[in-house]
Amino acid sequence: MPSIKREVYKLLGGFVVLLILLFASLMFINVKYGISTDTKNMLVYQGALLEQSYKSTGSLPSLVNSEILSVYKEVEDIPAYIADGFPWPEMEVASLEEKPLYDDLGKARYVYAMKYTIKGLSTPIYIISSYDDDLEKKIQYEASIREGNLFYIALGIGMIILTILLFVKVLYWRLLSPVETLFDWVNSLDEENTPSSKRLKYIELVQLVEELKNNIIKQKEFIDREGFFLRTISHELRTPIAIISTSGELLERLSLRDAIAQRATDRIMYAVDNMKTLVQTLLWISRKSDCPLPVTEIDIQAMIRGLVEDNKYLSQDKDIEFNLDKLATGDVILDNYGTVHLVLINLIRNAIQYTHQGCITFESHLHTVTITNPVHEDIYDQKVESSYGIGLYLVEKICEAQNYSFEIMTETNTVRARVSFIP
What we know:
- By secondary structure, the protein is α+β, with helices and mostly antiparallel strands.
- It has helices at residues 4-57, 80-83, 133-138, 143-188, 197-200, 203-254, 259-287, 300-310, 337-353, 377-386, 390-402; strands spanning 70-72, 96-102, 108-116, 125-132, 296-299, 319-327, 332-335, 357-365, 368-374, 405-411, 414-420.
- The longest helix is centred in the N-terminal third of the chain and has 54 residues, at 4-57.
- The two termini are 39 Å apart.
């Protein structure tokens, strides 16, 4: 992707080349037009002299007839190659015509022709100026004239280049310098060292800086709220969890002989243990600690089956089937129980919650778990946009912190979530 500075330099470079070409073209046109205009003035002046002599004497003086300038009364008197080379009857009075021709000897000549009328004469006169191309090429014009022309041309080109360089300098100072100032600040996003409006110069850049500052503030507020929530929930849940845990242990000792009470107590203790794990994991995420979490051996198949059983209540009043046949037996990983548990329970809960009918398929292979669930057409777009809500947000946070590989793929009426745990 090109940078603004490079793009500006490229455009200005192209502009310089076009400007030089335009200057050279204008110089050529000016020289060409100047020669034609000077020749036309010479022929008109010759006609005016003849008209002045005719008025004073009543007759034309001896007509000029030389290589460079000739005057004729009749077209028949004009050399044949010139007479045939111009449309004399159609030519306008005092209008210059010019073209390259070849004389009777085959020599190249450049001929200027004009039809001129003199008051008192019934017929026009014909004024012709002719140049021998070969002879003109052999003439060595005065060196000072040639050098002077080259000097002025070089001076003109130099002035153009100098003007362009000054223009580039001004353009850089007016446009690129504020952009570079903004870019330097964006790299640091230092709120205490925000570039001033005077340095940014333009309303759009100032508004962009203000918008970035507002977004930074909002982002920090969101991060602070998120951290505060995680710290608060971790702190506030410690006491009730401790109380529930102690009470559960007491119930466990009191209900050893009652199988039903024992199952209920086991469920309470299982929920308490999971709550402890949740609090510890959330607290670890909020602190962003570099200290690694404790690890243990985890049977992925057993955990998934247990989580599916725990969350089957979400499938009540729904026509949902669970396919657990593709779970690999013996797929054991060495990882933190809390992070793996939170990732899997949120993916399983989301799959059940957003499925209204059909089969949810669970697969595991080489520490990689894939959950595929059908989605109803009416909520397909809404589900994809909401990204499964806070559950998936928590999954992404944990995967980022633990370097798990996570992706969610959407197809027609189907969502596939895949997470790969690093062994």
